[in-house]
């Protein structure tokens, strides 16, 4: 894998020095490389060596050259049906459009001016001997693009019984300040409302740090969004639950939202298997009514530009942060002079 990456880096450096740079670089991975770099008894879904991922490494090489990359595996071109042909052509078209014009494949008018949304995910740096943990932050505030922020090394991280990291007071304050400083640098003012989606419950120290970081922000909404709740709904129809179906338990302020399912506009359910909802728990520090929080999360499932599907399961704030964290955790991160904030380098 390292030999192949060396060849890719050399070719991209040649392209980078050209007087006319392309808008995007398409990297076609030969079947011989797929076979040679795939561990025995594993499929070709991911190519990894000693914990390092081929796709993630190529994304970092492209970022270093400031040119977005598009990977093509042999399986992408193994088309057996007209539906596969249409789906893959559409996905490639949307992806290359987004990368070539440096963002903005589509936008929304639903994000109000003055509202700042962010998703939080954690990752460990593989090349650091001290087991450094950072946060990957997906930041949305104008409805047209995702801004990626990488936190400084986070102090005093604690893991719960499920292995989910939790921030200390200082780390939570640091993360909140970083998001708001970037917003203020872009907008010239602090937001009136700040919403943070996190895939684990908020601890007391995290609340206190975020409250101090957001001093001067009128409304603060902390929301726990979990992927795998132990509940499903079965409507009395031939189709699974409709996308947008919401089951709320008011006494506990917990909500089960179907972000995938039967879509009336398409008169079908596109997925495989029985869909399940995601779990949404507004924190005690949450100013906005829970129903509005759930509507916003449903809306954010249509803002991941890494797919042309009708919607994804998790809101883009969380799914993008997680995907970016896997790339930033790679060994080559420190060799990049500046981690770029634009999402099109990562997708």
Automatic annotation (TrEMBL):
Any one Gene Ontology molecular-function term assigned to this protein's record: nucleic acid binding
SUPFAM superfamilies assigned to the protein according to its UniProt record, in alphabetical order: Ribonuclease H-like
Protein's UniProt name: Piwi domain-containing protein
Organism in which the protein naturally occurs: Natrinema gari JCM 14663
